C-alpha cells in the first residue's frame, strides 16, 4: 500500500485549490473525487441556473473564473474546473468515493487510513474538501411520510417544466427558494413558507456577507455546528423574478406549517392547504460522515477548527487531530472561502509534515 504525504478528498473549488498549493509546495498527494467528472457540486446544479444567477464564482489560484453570462452554470463551471485540472496536471482520481477515514493501528500507527470500496490509501495528512451537496437537509415534520404527492429537495430540482398544473409549496427562506418561486409562479400555483420572515436587501451587501462569515468563523472556533454562509447574506429579486413578484408570489408567504397530511399541509391554527408538491429548499449539511471514525466532533456537536500558525487566519486544522484539515467547511463554505482555505490547508500540511520529520 502506497504511503502518501497528503491525500485530498473532493475535487470541488476547495480540493482543487488545496491540490494546487500542495503541488507548489512539492508535497506528494492524490485527490480522490466521488463525482464521475470534473466540476464538484456545480455539475449537479439545476439546468436553469445561469452564470448570471449565481452569487459569483471565485477564481481558482492563478486562473480567472468564467464571467457572468446567460450560459448554464452546470456546464460553464465544470468546464473551467476540467481545464484547470488538465493545465495544472492535478492528480485527481475519479470516481472514487471515500467510505471511511480511520487512525491507523499497528504498523500504520500515526498514519491515516483512507478506505474506498476497493482500495485503501495510507497518508500522513488529510485535506477533506467534500462540500455539502451530497447531504441535502430535509427537516422532519409529523405526517411527512403520509404525503401522497411529490416531495423533493433542491438537490433534485429538475427545472420548472415538471411542475406545470401542480400546486406547489416551496419551503425555505434562502436564495434557492426565491429562485424556484421566480421560475414556478408564472407557470403554476405556488405558496411560499418560511420559518422566519425573509430579509430583503437591495443588492448584495459586502459588509453583511463579511459579518455572516465572521459569525460562522466564531462558531467553528468554538466547536459548534457551522451555519451556512451563503444563506445569510440577504435576499434580493433579480429581473427574472419580477414576474413572480408582480403576481404576488413573494407576498403570499406563510409561516411554517405544523404537519403534513396525505393531500396537503396543516398549520397550528388548524388551517389546511391542499398541495401536490412539497419542494424543500432547506439547505445542506457538511458531507463528512466518512470522518466519523476519527472522533473529530467536539462536545458542542461541530468540528472545532483552529488556524495553523503561519497559514493565515483561516481555520482549517481539526483541533482534535491536526493531521486533518477541513476545507469548504463552516466559514470557508463558499467558492472564495474554499479557495483561501485550500491554501491555508496546504501550508498547515507542510508545517505538520516538517514537525513530524524533525529530530526529537
Ligand atoms: P463541492 O463543489 O461540493 O465539491 C466537493 C467534491 O467532493 C464533490 O466533487 C464530491 O463528489 C466530492 N465528495 C464528497 N464526498 C466525497 C467522498 N466521501 N469521497 C470522495 N469525494 C467526495 N458559493 C459561491 O461562492 N457562490 C455561489 O454562487 C454559490 N451558489 C451556491 C448554490 C447552491 C445551490 C449551493 C448548494 C451552494 C452554493 N455555493 C456558492 C456554495 C459553494 O458551491 C461551495 O461552498 C463551494 O463550491 C465550495 O466547494 P467545495 O470544494 O467545498 O465543494
What do you see in this structure?
With 360 residues, this protein is an alpha/beta fold. The chain has two domains: 3-134 and 284-357, FAD/NAD(P)-binding domain; 144-200 and 235-280, FAD/NAD(P)-binding domain (3-Layer(bba) Sandwich), CATH 3.50.50. Helices cover 22% and strands 20% of the residues. The protein contains six helices and 17 strands. The protein has helices at 13-24, 73-87, 175-184, 206-221, 242-246, 335-357; strands spanning 3-9, 29-32, 92-93, 98-103, 112-116, 120-128, 150-153, 167-171, 189-194, 254-255, 259-261, 264-266, 272-274, 277-280, 305-306, 317-318, 321-326. Strands 1, 2, 3, 4, 5, 6, 15, 16 and 17 form a nine-stranded mixed sheet that branches. β5 (112-116) and β6 (120-128) form a beta hairpin. α1 (13-24) packs parallel to α6 (335-357). Flavin-adenine dinucleotide binds at residues 9-15, 32-35, 40-41, 54-57, 96-98, 129-131, 133-134, 176, 230, 284, 287, 290, 328, 333-336, 338.
Percentage of β-strand residues: 15-25%
Residue share in helices? 10-25%
CATH class category name of the largest domain = Alpha Beta
Total separate domains: 2
* End-to-end C-alpha gap: 27 Å
CATH topology heading of the largest domain = FAD/NAD(P)-binding domain
In CATH, the homologous superfamily of the largest domain goes by the name FAD/NAD(P)-binding domain
**What Rg, in angstroms, do the CA atoms define?**
22 Å
What is the arithmetic mean of pLDDT? Answer: 94
Contiguous helical run count = 6
Query: Low-confidence spans: pLDDT under 50, at least 5 residues?
Result: none
Which sheet architecture does the biggest sheet show?
Answer: 9 strands, mixed
Please count the beta strands (DSSP E, at least 2 residues each).
17
Any idea what the shape is?
Answer: globular
Determine the structural class based on helices, strands and strand pairing: alpha/beta
What binds here, in terms of ligands, is: flavin-adenine dinucleotide
In CATH terms, what is the architecture of the largest domain?
3-Layer(bba) Sandwich
Note the run of SSEs as H and E: EHEHEEEEEEHEHHEEEEEEEEH
Amino acid at each position: 500500500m502506497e504511503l502518501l504525504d497528503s491525500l485530498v478528498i473532493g475535487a470541488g473549488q476547495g480540493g482543487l485549490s488545496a491540490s494546487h498549493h500542495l503541488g507548489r509546495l512539492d508535497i506528494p498527494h492524490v485527490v480522490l473525487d466521488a463525482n464521475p467528472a470534473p466540476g464538484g457540486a456545480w455539475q449537479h446544479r439545476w439546468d436553469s441556473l445561469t452564470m448570471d444567477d449565481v452569487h459569483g464564482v471565485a477564481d481558482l489560484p492563478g486562473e480567472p473564473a468564467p464571467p457572468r453570462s446567460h450560459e448554464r452554470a452546470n456546464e460553464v463551471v465544470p468546464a473551467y474546473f476540467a481545464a484547470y485540472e488538465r493545465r495544472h496536471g492535478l492528480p485527481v482520481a475519479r470516481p472514487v468515493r471515500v467510505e471511511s477515514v480511520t487512525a491507523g493501528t499497528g504498523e500504520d500507527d500515526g498514519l491515516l487510513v483512507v478506505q474506498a470500496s476497493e482500495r485503501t490509501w495510507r497518508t500522513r495528512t488529510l485535506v477533506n474538501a467534500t462540500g455539502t451537496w451530497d447531504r441535502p437537509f430535509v427537516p422532519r415534520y409529523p405526517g411527512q411520510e403520509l404525503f401522497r404527492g411529490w416531495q423533493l429537495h433542491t438537490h433534485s430540482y429538475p427545472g420548472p417544466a415538471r411542475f406545470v398544473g401542480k400546486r406547489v409549496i416551496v419551503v425555505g427562506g434562502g436564495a434557492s427558494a426565491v429562485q424556484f418561486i421566480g421560475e414556478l409562479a408564472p407557470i403554476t400555483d405556488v405558496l411560499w413558507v418560511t420559518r422566519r420572515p425573509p430579509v430583503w436587501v437591495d443588492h448584495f451587501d459586502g459588509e453583511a456577507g463579511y459579518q455572516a462569515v465572521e459569525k460562522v468563523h466564531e462558531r467553528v472556533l468554538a466547536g459548534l455546528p457551522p451555519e451556512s454562509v451563503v444563506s445569510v447574506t440577504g435576499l434580493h429579486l433579480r429581473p427574472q423574478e419580477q414576474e413572480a413578484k408582480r403576481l404576488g408570489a413573494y407576498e403570499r408567504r406563510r409561516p411554517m406549517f405544523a404537519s403534513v397530511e396525505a393531500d396537503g399541509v396543516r398549520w397550528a391554527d388548524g388551517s389546511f392547504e391542499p398541495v401536490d408538491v412539497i419542494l424543500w429548499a432547506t439547505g445542506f449539511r457538511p458531507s463528512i460522515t466518512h470522518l466519523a471514525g476519527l472522533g473529530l466532533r467536539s462536545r458542542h456537536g461541530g468540528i472545532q477548527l483552529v488556524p495553523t500558525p503561519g497559514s493565515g487566519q483561516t481555520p482549517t486544522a481539526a483541533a482534535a487531530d491536526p493531521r486533518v484539515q477541513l476545507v469548504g467547511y463552516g466559514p470557508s463554505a463558499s467558492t472564495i472561502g474554499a479557495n483561501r482555505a485550500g491554501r491555508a490547508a496546504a501550508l498547515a500540511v507542510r508545517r505538520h509534515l516538517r514537525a513530524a520529520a524533525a529530530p526529537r
